[in-house]
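haha ok so turns out i had the wrong file open the whole time. this is the CORRECT one, sorry everyone. sequence first:
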Amino acid sequence: MFNFLRRSADPISDPLFGQLEWTRSRGGGTWNGRLLFIPTRNEIDISIPGGPKGPAPAHALFQEICKRFDTINAVIDNNIQEACDDESVVPSARTLQGLYFFDASIEEGDWKLVYAMGEHELHVDGYGVDASNVFVLTD
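then structure:
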């Protein structure tokens, strides 16, 4: 009866992000997958907003984040100790778990990096690709 409310989308294969599957959410939906993140050389989750017809264009922002990742990473290193009150946390002892886009446009990009740091989870919010717009938060 209400099948139109459960609209689904077939998985897609994106040339940059690989296999993506759509998940319906209150804000419309997200396209989710896993990919090898070259700057850290590990596999991470990726999430891009979009409706059932496809994800928002995120290639340009993703490529800029990759290109500037060393600079972004240096800002993260400098801010971890301030954000985390656990002195046993070593800034370099973290593993990137995911990159989540909220606005994937290159102009207004709104994204989050999520790291595992021992028992802690580190969230890095970013806006655009300017490293001065990177904010470090811990759980």
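Residues 3-138 form one domain.
again sry for the mixup
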